[in-house]
Here is the input.
Amino acid sequence: MNKASQLYLTDSYLRRFTAQVLTCEKRPGGYAVTLDRTAFYPEGGGQPADRGILENAEVLDVQMQGDTVLHLLDRPLTPGDSVTGAIDWARRLDHMQQHTAEHIVSGIVHQLYGYDNIGFRLPVLGQGFVSVDFSGVLDEGMLRETESRANALVASDVELGVAFPSSADLSQLDYRSKKELDGPVRLILIPGADLCACCGTHVNRSGEVQLIKILSHEKNHGGTRLFLAAGWRALHDYAEKHDGTAELSALLKTPPKGVPAAVRRLYDENAALCGRLHLLEGELFALLAQSAPAHAPSLRRDGLSPDGCRRLCLLLKERCTGVCRVFSKKEDGGFLYALASRDADVRPFAKALNEACGGRGGGRPELCTGTLKKLPPEPGL
Here is the structure.
């Protein structure tokens, strides 16, 4: 299949097309079909494949195999037949918006700071956000400037260009590319922002991106990985976060802008209470350990955390001989356990307990912890 037959390269807005079936082969998961031409974008360059319908068959996946576009369908088609294809337009438009936003941001970062885009991933809607890896460190101020300029370019509604320059013309151009390219090169031009070699699908005008939001960033192998959303995906993300903030605002009885401070206050109060609880538990555990039998004590104290169960058992171990046992009922059902000893290997005891009571857990010779579906038949084991 030549480039002219890959219709998405020249028209990202083509939603329906006709083609002739060349081959159809049974494959794991469906039927691999090739056409004499196609508007379905195959997975590649960080962008997911299109979905849609070919005649009466659902397009499950689209992949490049050499120079051939393979369509994986849920049912066979007959070679030689003329068929009509229909692209899942909502999915395609989302990918066009996200991919164009990535070009805008990458071009501006390169202009401002000289960093290269060294990695790009576009998850399908509902499975995350666009991630872009840059070759240098970007701080909060740099990202705010990048986002501001990106959205100014979106608002300017410039027309994007698509070109297939000759080798001679290409050698005179300064364009972005992650790797050396052989053969014809497809360039995407965003005036004022970017010129990049790319085979993906993009909008015609920057205004169709609607908006770009840089959501977060993190260090990545000496550079920066940032996450962004554009268009309807960014709007959905905003709506979800707005609803969550509104719910917290009502719950905390504070205006939306006061939610972060209110949450920080609650966090600090909770940390202080946890510290007091830890101290009081320590005092209680010391009293329980002092009043416990001196040999192989078995205590049940409901409502303990896994850490509390472990701490109580370790206190028992310090003053008691044999295998010390602590059990605690969990709020969601089942029981926590801790086994400890200073003169025996408790792992065989833990294994027997797990087998007898539907448990899971283990640990070191001197301490094992885990969970049980039920308690042992005899409270004192």
Observations:
- The mean pLDDT is 93.
- The longest helix spans residues 259-291.
